[in-house]
Amino acid sequence: MENEIINDFICVKCQGKLFRSEQKLCCSSCMSEFIINNGIIDFRGNRQSYYFNPVSTTDMDTLIKQMEESNWSQTVRSFIKYVGPKSPDSWIDNLVVDSRYAWKIFLNSNENKSLLDIGCGLGNLVSNLAPHFGQVYAMDLTYKRLQFTQKRSSIFNTSDDIRFIAGGDQKYLPFPDHSVDCVTLSGVLEWVGEGDTALYNSGSKLRRIWYMLANYFGESSPRNIQIAFLKEIKRILKEDGQLFVGIENRLNYEYFINRPDHHSNLKYGSLMPRFIANLYSIFAKHQPYRTFTYSIPGYRKLFAEAGFDSLEFIGLFDGYSFLRKMLPFAETGKTWQPSKPRSLKKKISSNKYFVPAYGIVASSAKRKSTSLHDRIFNAIAQKMREDASSNFTVRNYIVTNKEKLVMNCNIAAKDVVVKIPLNEASLFAQQKNKELLIKMAGLSVSPDFVCQVEEEGLQGFVEEEIKGNPISSLFLPQSKTSLKNLYQDIGELLGKLNPPESIISEEKFEFSGDIYKRVVERPLKTLFAVLEDKGLHDYLHGYFSENLKGKYIGSGVYHGDLSVSNIIVTPNGSYQLIDWEGGMENGIPILDAINFIGSSYRYTNTRASMRDTINMLIGDDFKESEEWQFLAKQYEYWEIDLDLHKGLVYLNWLSSVSHLLPFSLRFNEKNINKFIYDVVAEMK
């Protein structure tokens, strides 16, 4: 509506009220105007040309257009191509890995609250957190990245209320006092202290050096810029609001053993006194040292000066990027009882002063927690025992490469594992795991499924915790278990899944119809939803049709990932199977035996590729091994012709690849070549 007062935003120059006039917002006090272009409000000041992105503006335009015409996997692979071969894994993590935001469970999110992500970049955080908030604001100073985020949100967040703001370089943030519930800064606060770098890149060499030294003091010092920025965030936060900061630890243990500082790329730069680090950077990099990070005491002082009285620290491994483990540094007691690290290196690396990075939850005052984390556990406790008084303790927080958060806990006096899927692919996998665990109940080969809860769009799957060690421990030199006995034990375990009386042998079972569709055609469909390659499509369909379709193979209970990490040896010596995400009640059990041999080979030959493993399994030398004797007995058990071995090895490969594709594999062209095209080249 023309000349309508806008209550959601204020003027970034004078904090005056704004009213809408055509495609712009106008300040009623200083008369400044802010353009609205295709849904993006432009609050930027003098840094209109600021561009922080590894891809050129022209290529970004191409990518944004491509998002309308191609599937998401192709868009991401194109982005990685534009970046170049230097760090594809890092950008895949930045762009698409959902589990890097597992820390969101520590926020007080719900559908009635608002979120502002400052420095939203390419939109991965916004896409992940938007479903847990009622209103989301995505802000970035690089306009092209904001356009990318907007297009991405139109694909993946169609039911979420997201507004897009170009800005961050003005005196004020464009929000009224106490109007936002949560602000996130993931990998941003350290860069805030850089300020405007134009002064360091123009003029004579002597003048540039003078600015690099002089701007290290007073209001223009990196620390004071950071404090001013944090104060501005505190202004817009509600009284009970939260600020989450993902940032490196200045005393990261890796910095002591030759790892360069993450931002300046200076060895030992983070550990030096600031003034010395600045001189070092000017001399070595011809740039000032302004990307300040801190230790826990340093962060406490920094945030206290900005008015944040309450800080909660979460240790992040390997950092806020490539997140694989979280350590909340709270007092041990009701909710957090960490397991004690065994080695000296782990003791140092998990010490709160030396972890790689922190997730910091900052607020104005201590208050009763209403975090998503606690609400999930309270719901589980109530489901497990109606009279439970929400008592729970957590021993670890592990983030897996299949996009799930796994927590070993004690809830209602029972040791359990809680799994929280962090995207749709992981949710589908956990639902399958739940179904198979329920069906396996009574066989004494897998954990019991306990319950499932949902809070603010996150599902929690709870199962019995199996005590023991992965079977890989039996491969260690000090193990007294012989390979012959080990394979005999695995054979007995597989026999429990499919005892002789459950196998119908009166009629030969042909590998066709519905089971062929589920075991062959569905994985191929998953593969070619990612790869548009008609030649490969026709070849693989033809290969499996010619070599396996219509043959007698035998069907039964199939685990789907029988590996050395998914078989647990309990203290009494029995074996238990965990992680049934790829399983089927009516699948091809011989594939489990093949997969176990391949997994054992990769565990003992750490540099072996998937192609190497397959070549080992189908090579002539393999038939002289203990492994082949084990596998031959499985073929005999299922009455399968040994001539089908090669085709079944490739079928196991197809199954493995199809389980990886819904996750990060589909975005990584290098790994697609290694896991798929290199293997197919050997098939032909």
Automatic annotation (TrEMBL):
InterPro entries: Kinase-like_dom_sf, Methyltransf_11, SAM-dependent_MTases_sf, Tyr_kinase_AS. GO terms for molecular function: protein kinase activity; S-adenosylmethionine-dependent methyltransferase activity. Residues 116-199 form the Methyltransferase type domain. It holds the Pfam family Methyltransf_11. SUPFAM superfamilies: Protein kinase-like (PK-like), S-adenosyl-L-methionine-dependent methyltransferases. PANTHER family: TRANS-ACONITATE 2-METHYLTRANSFERASE, TRANS-ACONITATE 2-METHYLTRANSFERASE-RELATED. This is Methyltransferase type 11 domain-containing protein. It comes from Nitrosomonas stercoris.
